[in-house]
Amino acid sequence: MIPNLDVIRPADAEETAGAFAAAMLREDGPTALILTRQNVPAQDSSTVSERRQGVLKGGYIAKKESGDLKLILLATGSELQHAMGAAEQIGDGVRVVSLPCFERFERQSADYIESVLPSTCTARVAVEAGVSSTWGKYVGLTGKTVCIDRFGISAPGDTVMAELGMTADNVAQVAKTLI
Length: 179
Known about the structure:
By secondary structure, this protein is α/β, with parallel strands linked by helices. 36% of the residues lie in helices and 15% in strands. Helix 1 (13-25) packs across helix 2 (48-56) and helix 3 (80-90) packs across helix 8 (168-176).
């Protein structure tokens, strides 16, 4: 691991623009941009400005819950689309948080972090086509992860993602076990 490295995994074009801005504005250490080659849909649940500012902070509410908060879905990079799809399936009370950069998010004030990830909501599911070990501090002891803790497979992108459980349907199924 490189000390003081910000790793930014943007979800789509708008987050990528925010990631480039974050990298150019950072003067106290290196930044790595981890981009996908997948064809990902643009997310339109928040404004362009909110999304870009959210990336600068490392994380933000990509979709605010309607009604009382009962579940938080967290995602990074191209997996944000699956969290958003799962939230639509589950319905009211589901918040989606995009966390493109853990390092930047953890440098925010305690008040900001609490506003995005309120400690009163422990039903949490993290989604990433990567290892689950980095998500423990965000999902807690009662949360779950939809991640890949093994070597991947070779096939067309959609086939691989479905085979490895990286779908809105699977995320929704896992999340429903918590609520």
